[in-house]
C-alpha cells in the first residue's frame, strides 16, 4: 500500500491525495509538518533531506516533490487516461504542471503568506501589491488557455495537470482581496465540481 507522509491541509499533499483518489490507489496518510510530527526529525530527513512534505513510500521506493509523485503514481498505476503516454499529449500536460510549479506559484507566495497566513515577515503593502499584480498576470494566462480549450487545462479531457492547477485556483479564490473577474476560470472551477475528489481534496474549505 502507498504511504503518504504529510499533513492533509498542505496544498502539495492534497495533490497526492487527489491523484490517489482519481486513480483509486489505496493509501495510508501520516500527518507530518507544522502542528504534527516534525519534518526535521532524523527519520523524516532520511527520506527527504529537504525536510518538506509530501513524501511517498511505495514498498521500498521513496519519492518526494509533489508533481514528480503524481506523475509517478499515474505512470505506475495505469493512469494513462490522466497522464498520456503519447509524447505530444504528455508534453502539454507537463508544460502546465511545470508552469504551475514555477511561474504561477512564485507569483502568489508573498500575498498568500501575508493575507492568509498573516506572516509577520510578509506584511509589506508594496510587496503584497506586487505579488497580487504578478498573480493576476498569470491567472490571465490561465484564463486565456481555458477560453481556448473550453474545458480543461491541457485540452478537452481532465488530466493530471488539472490537479495542481485547480489547487492553485482554489488558493486564488481563498485569498481575501478584490479579484479580477476571469470568466473561463470561474466556469472551469464549477466544471470540476462534478469530480468527488475535487470536493474532498481541493474545494474543501482549505486555501
From TrEMBL:
An MF annotation (GO) of this entry: glutathione transferase activity
Swiss-Prot/TrEMBL keywords: Transferase
Enzyme Commission number(s) of this protein: 2.5.1.18
PROSITE patterns the UniProt entry points to: GST_CTER, GST_NTER
Coiled-coil segments: none
GST C-terminal domain ranges (all copies): 86-207
Gene3D superfamilies with a match to the protein in the record: 1.20.1050.10, Glutaredoxin
Name of one Pfam family that matches: GST_N_2
Domain GST N-terminal positions: 1-81
InterPro entries, alphabetized: Glutathione-S-Trfase_C-like (IPR010987), Glutathione-S-Trfase_C_sf (IPR036282), Glutathione_S-Trfase (IPR040079), Glutathione_S-Trfase_N (IPR004045), GST_C (IPR004046), Thioredoxin-like_sf (IPR036249)
Main EC class the enzyme belongs to: transferase
PANTHER family, alphabetized: DISULFIDE-BOND OXIDOREDUCTASE YFCG, GLUTATHIONE S-TRANSFERASE-RELATED
Record family assignment: Belongs to the GST superfamily.
UniProt name for this protein: Glutathione S-transferase GstB
Organism: Paraburkholderia humisilvae
Encoding gene per record: gstB_3
